[in-house]
């Protein structure tokens, strides 16, 4: 006790703090992929975690099932009432799909994969950060299974996040609720007449709803409208469901609107997730946004849509 | 064998914190309060008190690095914090070793210190923006209560096990 901090130890402590700052600086840099020691640790631990995750999910699922059984009668009645509606919608969907295919064939568009097409890979959740400062979950699929950074991750109900870091056999998913400033997803509101575009940017601390920002001030939004991914961000496919609009307001400068979105997926009790890879190729890196032709094209498209 | 049993137990606890407890945690079922488990760290403090400062700090750094790599995107925060607090609070004098209450209280103080240190770091680095009262009432105090009740229940078997490991280690050295 007497020599709590001798000179030598003080120097070691200072060196440690310098190393700490350097490490933080290194790991805060954007677009960093995992170094091989990190991959080794996450993969080794991930292997043990998967062994533990399955029985735990099974146990949790059992309680969940018991809970579900209580609500089954009520749910069944509501679902039955929706069933007639569903049949009508199905007919309409088939009709529209057929029409769409015919029109595409007429325009020779059959070769191109659209933004809708994707392949899904299922994965099991093996860990979640216990301190909840980061909203990260780990899944048991990695680069060896074809998973890349930035891919969308969904559950059966809707979008939950994107792949943040990939290791060889495991990957980390950043949930939509994470407070990271770079956690931004291009989305649109599926309104009657037009697409209202904007970004999903983290969560509102007070209400717990997702923030849907940068909406055109003139756009007409209604409560209850569905928010889906736009596929314009590059890696996500189009039309993955995010949630529905709960409320909206003009932002602090009155230049854009912000809507609050209740997520369709449940961020608690995640067990199985799907990692989405879209089949349409991503944009060329060569496109120059400052190029005159390019911007003109975009403008004319926008006008066309508004009409 | 007993040499590796410490690491093995801590590793299993680590898996329990991150995987099993997260699936069964109360906030997954709609409870507003967050319970952050610090079981690994409290056991490390126990080990530090009974087996000396160096051992405590060693395990603190090893599991801090694992925590950093697996659960956070920022390296070094937990490695430094757990190593440093384990070094400070591994008070291996006979009074602390004989008095179980003192040992338990040290472990709790260490867990509390770690929670505050991590909150400070995350606030500083812009990972979180929640204010202090919310942190205190919805995260810190529930976690503290949960960790305290866990360590209070398991303190006696834990001490027995650590003493057993120390004894076995000495016997193995003699052979």
Describe the structure.
The complex is a heterodimer of chains A (307) and B (175). Chain A has a domain of 82 residues: Rod shape-determining protein MreC, domain 2 (Thrombin, subunit H), CATH 2.40.10.350. Chain A has 3 helices and 12 strands; from the N terminus they run H-H-E-E-E-E-E-E-E-E-E-E-E-E-H. In chain A, the strands form 2 sheets. Chain A has a 6-stranded antiparallel beta barrel with strand order 1-2-5-4-3-12. Chain A has a 6-stranded antiparallel β-barrel with strand order 6-7-8-11-10-9. In chain A, a hairpin with a 4-residue loop joins strand 3 and strand 4. In chain B, 81% of the residues lie in helices and 0% in strands. Chain B contains 7 helices and no strands. In chain B, helix 1 runs antiparallel to helix 2 and helix 1 runs parallel beside helix 3. In chain B, 43% of the residues are buried. The model of chain B has no long low-confidence stretch (mean pLDDT 89). Classes of the chains: A alpha+beta (307), B mainly alpha (175). Chain B: This is Rod shape-determining protein MreD. Chain B: Belongs to the MreD family.
Question: Can you summarize this structure?
Answer:
Chain A: Residues 289-307 have a biased composition (Acidic residues). Chain A: Residues 284-307 are annotated as: Disordered. Chain A has 307 residues and is α+β, with helices and mostly antiparallel strands.
Provide key terms for this protein.
heterodimer, A: 307 residues, alpha+beta, Thrombin, subunit H, 3 helices, 35% helix, 27% strand, globular, B: 175 residues, mainly alpha
């Amino acid at each position: 006790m007497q020599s709590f901090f001798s000179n030598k130890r003080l120097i070691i402590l200072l060196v440690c703090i310098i190393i700490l700052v350097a490490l933080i600086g290194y790991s805060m840099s954007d677009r960093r992929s995992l170094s091989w020691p990190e991959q080794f640790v996450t993969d080794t631990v991930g292997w043990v975690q998967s062994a533990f995750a399955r029985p735990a999910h099974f146990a949790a699922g059992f309680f969940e099932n018991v809970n579900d059984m209580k609500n089954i009668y009520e749910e069944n009645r509501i679902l039955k009432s929706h069933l007639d509606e569903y049949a009508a919608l199905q007919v309409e969907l088939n009709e529209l799909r057929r029409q769409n295919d015919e029109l595409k064939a007429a325009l020779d568009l059959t070769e191109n994969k659209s933004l809708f097409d994707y392949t899904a890979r299922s994965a099991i959740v093996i860990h979640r950060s216990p301190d909840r400062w980061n909203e990260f979950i780990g899944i048991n699929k990695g680069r060896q299974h074809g998973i890349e950074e930035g891919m969308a991750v969904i559950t059966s109900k809707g979008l939950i996040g994107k792949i943040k870091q990939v290791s060889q056999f495991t990957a980390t998913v950043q949930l939509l609720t994470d407070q990271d400033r770079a956690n931004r997803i291009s989305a649109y509101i599926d309104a009657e007449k037009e697409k209202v575009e904007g970004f999903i940017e983290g969560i509102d601390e007070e209400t717990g709803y997702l923030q849907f920002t940068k909406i055109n001030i003139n756009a007409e939004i209604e409560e209850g409208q569905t928010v889906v991914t736009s596929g314009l961000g590059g890696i996500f496919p189009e039309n993955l469901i995010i949630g529905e609009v709960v409320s909206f307001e003009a932002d602090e400068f009155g230049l854009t609107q912000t809507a609050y979105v209740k997520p369709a997926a449940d961020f608690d009790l995640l067990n199985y997730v799907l990692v989405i890879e879209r089949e349409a190729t991503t944009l060329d890196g060569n496109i120059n946004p400052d190029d005159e032709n390019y911007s003109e094209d975009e403008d004319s498209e926008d006008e066309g849509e508004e009409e | 064998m007993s040499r590796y049993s410490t690491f093995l137990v801590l590793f299993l606890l680590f898996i329990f914190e991150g995987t099993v407890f997260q699936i069964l945690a109360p906030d997954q079922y709609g409870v507003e309060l967050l319970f952050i488990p610090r079981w690994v760290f409290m056991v490390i403090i126990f080990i530090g008190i009974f087996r000396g400062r160096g051992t405590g700090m060693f395990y603190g750094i090893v599991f801090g690095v694992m925590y950093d790599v697996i659960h956070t995107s920022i390296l070094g925060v937990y490695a430094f914090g757990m190593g440093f607090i384990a070094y400070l609070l591994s008070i291996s004098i006979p009074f602390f070793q004989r008095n179980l209450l003192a040992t338990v209280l040290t472990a709790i103080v260490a867990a509390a210190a770690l929670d505050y240190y991590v909150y400070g770091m995350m606030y500083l680095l812009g990972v979180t923006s929640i204010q202090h009262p919310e942190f205190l009432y919805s995260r810190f105090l529930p976690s503290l209560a949960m960790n305290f009740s866990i360590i209070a229940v398991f303190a006696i078997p834990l001490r027995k096990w650590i003493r057993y490991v120390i004894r076995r280690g000495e016997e193995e050295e003699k052979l």
